[in-house]
Structure formats: C-alpha cells, structure tokens
Amino acid sequence: MHNNSLFKSLLFIAGILLFVSCDKEYSAIGDALIGDNNFELVKYPSNVVAHNEKIIPIESDNLDVNALGIYDNPAFGKTTANFVTQLALGTLNPTFGANPLIESVYIDVPYFVDATQTAAITTGGNTYVLDSIYGEKLAKIKLSVFESGLDMDSDGVAQTFYTNQNSDFDNYKIGNRLNDDSDKSQNDEFFYNPAQNSVTTKDAAEKETISYSAPGMRLKLNVAFFQNKIFNAPTGTLSVQNVFDKYFRGLYFKVEQSGADKGSLAVINFKKGTITIKYKEDSSTTPVTRVEKTLILNMSGATASLLEQSNPNTDYTSITGNPNRDLGDQKLYLKGGEGSLAVLELFEKKDLIGYDANGNLTGPNNVSDELDKMRKEGWLINDANLIFHIDAKTMKDSYEPDRIYLYDYTNNTTILDYYLGASTANKNTSKYLFGGYLTKNGTLKRGVSYKMNITNHIRNLVKNSEAKNVKLGVVVTEDMNFAEFKMLKTGNAFISKAPKASVMNPLGTILYGSNFPDTDANYSKRLQLEIYYTKPK
Q1: CB contact set of 112 (below 8 Å; sequence gap of 6+)
Q2: 3 state DSSP class of 450
Q3: pLDDT (tens digit per residue) in 194-246
Q4: What would you report as the CA-atom Rg of the chain, rounded to the nearest whole angstrom?
Q5: Cα(161)–Cα(486) distance, rounded to whole angstroms?
Q6: For residue 157, what are the β-bridge partners?
Q7: 381-399 b/e (C-beta count within 10 Å ≥ 16 → b)
Q8: Please, what sign has the CA dihedral across residues 136, 142, 147, 153?
Q9: 219 Cβ contact list (under 8 Å, min separation 6)
Q10: Cα(228)–Cα(302) distance, rounded to whole angstroms?
Q11: What local confidence, expressed as pLDDT, does residue 286 receive?
Q12: DSSP H or E run through 39
C-alpha cells in the first residue's frame, strides 16, 4: 500500500512538470503567431435556405410522456389529445381469500411540478405550481375513462399506432365510462388541480390518519366493473402478463369539450400511474374476520398518443401545404405532435467553381462555392451558431416551447454538436452547450429567439473535404435526451421520419425563415448562420 502511494505521488509530480513544459511551449508558439500577425479573427454571416415540411400522421406508440386534454392554439389550431394504455399486474397470479369484496378503486397519476416548487408534501393545504399544463388556468374538460377493446399487441409483440387513430379506439371502447362518480370534477368537469391529494386511512382501532402527496390525477373508478373483471376473472387470465393483456386490453382516456370552457392540456408521464384496488376478504384464522388487502395495476404497458387536429390556422395550413423548397419560406412553423418542421440548407447553392487536391480550379464539383472558398482558404472555425428569431406578434397569445432541436435531416440522425455536454435527467439542462433554449424579452417575458450551436458540424465540413453538406431539420422538442425517430404513416419523397421528442410536445413556434425581400421590415431577423473564424493571412 505504501509503495502504491509513492508511485501515485511520482506520477502526479511528473504530470505537473509535463503540463508546465507544454504550457511554456504553447505560450511561445502562440506569442510568435500573434506577434507575426499571421491570423485574423473574422465574423461571417451566411444565408440559409429554409422551408417547411408537414408532419402527417406519425407513430405515437410508447412515448415517454403523453398529452391529454384540449389546447386551442391561436397560431396553429386546436389539438385534442386522447390516450390509451395497457395495464400490468403488480403481482402475477394473485391469490385471493374467501369472499373478496372491493371497497374502492382509484387511478393515481402524478403531474409534473415546477422545479421551483418548495412546498412540503407532509402537511395539507398546499397548492403547487404545475408544469407542462397549457390552456386557461383551471379550465374544465370532459374526461371519460373506458375499457379499451382494441388489442395492442400480437402474440406479445407490440403493434404500431399513429396519431390519427383515435376513432379506432373510440369505436372499440367497451361499455360505459368507468369514472362515473357523481362528483363532476371526476368526469364532466375535470380540471388539472394544483392542490395536494390526500388519503385517509384507519388502523385497527379506527383511528384516522391523513397522508398527503403532490398533485396528480386521482379518479375514482367503478367498483362493480373491477369486482367482475379481476375477482371473477376466468382461470389463468391473471397468471401471465400477455394473457392478461388479451383479457383486459387496457384503458382508453377520451377528452371532450366541457360546456363553454376552452379546456386545457397536460403533458403527463402515465408510466408512473397506478390503479389501486382496495378490498376485504375473510381471514384464514378462527374466528373468521375481514382483513384489508390491496392489489396494484401499473400503467406501464404499451401506450398510444392519439392527437386530433381541428380548426387549423389558415396561414399555417397554407405555408406547410405549399412549401417553397427551392427558395425557402418567409416563416417557419414548428409544431409538435402531428405538426410540422423546418428543413435547412446551409451555404449558397451556387456551384461554379471547384478545386482539385492541388488547389487548382476545376469547375462545378457538387460543393457550394461558399464552402469551397472556406476550404481553399483554410478557415479555422472558432464558433458557429444558427440564430432563429421568433415572430413575436403572431405568437403573442400562444405558449412557447422551451427548446428546439436540430438534427441531420438527410440521414435522420444527430449531428456532432448534439454530444456537447452531458445528458442529464433534467430535460431543461441536458445537452446544455448544444443550445436551442428560448431567449425571452426581460420586460415582456415573451420569446425573442433560439440559438443552436453547430460549431463542430461546420468545423468538420470545412476541414474534411469528404464531408457531405447534409440538410438539417429543426423541430420543437419535449426532451433533448431523446434522439430517436418515429415513422410517418405515409412517407413521401421529402419526409419519412421525424424526431420522437417532437411527437411528445404539443406546442409550436413561428420563426422567421430565409426568403425575405431586403425591403421587408423584418429582413434583419431572417435566419442566418453566424460563423466566427480565424483566417490565415
């Protein structure tokens, strides 16, 4: 152990000496370069051609979070978000005593709470600040929970479902709604309540204890249905999960307008949801007494997000239905779910010159003249960012997404800069250096712009003559940690996939694009690529 410590100390001292030596050498070289004035730091704005692409019905099964509710977005139109999930037995092949009788059945699904929330959950009466709730505050929706009749897997293999399949699940729902309590806040006038939930329990001496939890969806379900479905289940249907999936195909959450209320929509992690069945059965002791038991069903099976679009904004419909793929569009509409994205082409399309390996002119070479010039002159890229300015006037009455996401549109994959910075569980700080954050006006608290860091992407294009100048895609994102893609139900020559995290986000934003006359009042806000580079003299 002593020898090991000595060895580590020697290594540490050697490392310091090496660092000092290298630092002196680097300083000397740097001084020489600066002293001889061999380099010039330059800012270079490059125009970008950007157009819209519509995201038609897209895969929406097994997302990490799902939308539920109604959000009428003035800039885009109305989204009605329904949801379906399979259920998983907390205990396979459960055994019940004699005369089991259910006393209550509750769904519990937690809401996202604002990161600044500090209220303790151990005492009652606290009202929280909810996160990811969009629409009018405390606005009501009609919420109905049905037994689902549509099989979500085939021989244990999950099927693919798309955003436009709500009518399929609606047509196959079974029976009456299960959240049929007389309290209208449980169904016809449901709202996303920011107050704590409370549960009262009694001990053997009938002493009551109240426990509190953070806000969440808490729905009382029909006892008779579960008594029959679970305790009167045919032999073998509760023993294996895939058999149970065939027997009880899950729950379908259907939302509708409630009276004159415009409604609201929440993004929820339903996989953390549970159904708690509390029941009593006869004890096996003598004399026989009634004992309390609990059975849990987890909402962790296959899911589908079902998004209905209606009353679309005419400008949104027009520009996404007829994009100018050659010259670009003046505005870019990014909309999550079954929405839209923007496609970017960097550097001017003109291709008149080209260079061979010796730097001689060769003529057209399928490389932008702008990029050819950078390669020929040996630009050293220090920083490169895409600056997206928001059409604040059109977006003034709409919720704005916190982040946008940039990716390789040509190959449906990430770009180098995506890997800047570590992934974190916090979606707001993950991939921090990659950017995409909403910058707000300090006074109005409204969005002004987004900035994406693509320094390594541009650096690779300039340094590597074999690198392809791919098209880039930009979307709204729910969580930068998810880089997977979902397939469109019917792809075309222009688009076949879109990022999964975009499908998870119900919001949208309108950005200034590229096709502007220089006399336009917003010409200075057009999309540009800002490059800072060191140019050898």
Answers
A1: 130, 131, 132, 267, 268, 269
A2: strand
A3: 999 888 777 767 788 888 888 999 999 999 999 999 999 999 999 999 999 99
A4: 29
A5: 11
A6: 154
A7: beebbbbbbbbbebbeebb
A8: negative
A9: 106, 107, 143, 145, 179, 181, 186
A10: 23
A11: 82
A12: strand 39-54
> Cβ(455)–Cβ(381) under 8 Å?
yes
The answer to whether 508 touches 73, Cβ cutoff 8 Å, is: yes
Residue 64 near residue 502 (C-beta atoms within 8 A)? no
State residue 212's pLDDT score: 85
Cα 187 vs. chain centroid, distance in angstroms?
Answer: 27
Q: What are phi and psi of 455, to 5 degrees?
A: -55, -50
Tens-digit pLDDT profile for residues 63-99: 999 999 999 999 999 999 999 999 999 999 999 999 9
> How far out from the chain centre does Cα 70 lie?
18
For residues 502, 504, 508, 512, the Cα torsion angle rounded to the nearest 10 degrees is -10
Provide the β-strand partners of residue 381: 533
| Angstrom distance (rounded) from CA 207 to CA 110 | 28
Phi-psi group of 10: left, alpha or beta (phi > 0 → left; psi -120 to 50 → alpha; rest → beta) = alpha
pLDDT value, residue 120: 67
Residues of the chain with pLDDT under 70: 1-39, 118-122, 156, 204, 357-358, 537
